[in-house]
Every structure is written in C-alpha cells, then in structure tokens.
Amino acid sequence: MSDCYIEDRECNSDEFQECERHFKCVCETHQKKLKPNRTILKCGSQGGVTLPVGTVAGAAFTLATVNVDSKGLKNQCIKFEFASNIVTTAAVLTLNFQVFKQCKDMPTPIPVGPIWTFSRLAAITEGNTFTFFVCDCDLCNDDCCTYSVVARVAGLATVGVTSINHASLSAIIVENDCNSCK
User: Fold this and answer.
1) Is residue 130 a contact partner of residue 86, using CB atoms and an 8 Å limit?
2) Residue 35, pLDDT score
C-alpha cells in the first residue's frame, strides 16, 4: 500500500511529483498523507491426531494453536487460516471443526466464527485436504490471546481409522486505524 494519496479530482501535470515510487498531488489544499496500517503474520504450532475405531461422539481434539499479541494495534482484525490433510482407512465419520480463543482474564475459551464440517459417509480409504478461514474482529486493544482449532466427533461413533495430519493454523493481523489520515 502506498503511503501517498491522490484525491479523486483532476490535477495539472506539473502538480505531480514522485513520492516513494508513487505519485501524489501536491495541490496543498487537497494533499493527504496516509500512515501505513501494520500487518503481522503469525504461524502457529503444527499438530495432528489419529482417531481409533469407535471414537465416541463428542470426543474433542485440539489440532493446532497460534498465540497472538495485539498490543499497540488499533481496531485490529485477524484472519485465521486452517489447513490439514485428513486420511481415512475404511472410515465413516463426521467431524466438526471450530476455532476457539482464550485471552487473558477469560476462564474458558470462546468460539470464533462458524463450525466447519468434514463428513465421510461411506467406508472408503481416501485422503483429502481440509481447509477453512475465519476472521475475528471483536478484540480489545492490548490483548494476548491463544487461538486453537478443535475437532469434535459428531453424530455416531467413528468407524474405521482416521488421521488428521499436518494441521496448521496461521493468523494475519491487520491494524485498521481509522485515524491514520493527517
């Protein structure tokens, strides 16, 4: 993103000058300079789990986590990206995936975004990539939070063996400082 701004109007060619590889209008009454909003990328821990035959409905497994420190950011919003490889061996199952966050002073984690579902309705042996993303823009300034992806067995007990491999969670934190224009 350029830190220069050209107002949506016509300027003469001699009113332009180069500004950090971009152009800006130097008509003094219309010039604005934008401060860049900060962006941070955090990669979390990688995990996985193997669900044995007959894993009961309701059983939950934490697959991946990432710690986010938003100290000093204003009006931040976080996009979380989850990716994994699910391999089934003659398996029938339904898994619900959801992101949870736990910040300082929170006694228990709270859900972030919707539930994402992976289903295998026939007893087959197959591998699939399973990915999703969610956003969390409901943050207090100066929060340190741990985000986790939890998989929960839904419906009936599992049939066959299922492995969730290379589960990873990453976060892109963006500051949305509405007061950054001079």
Assistant:
1) yes
2) 59
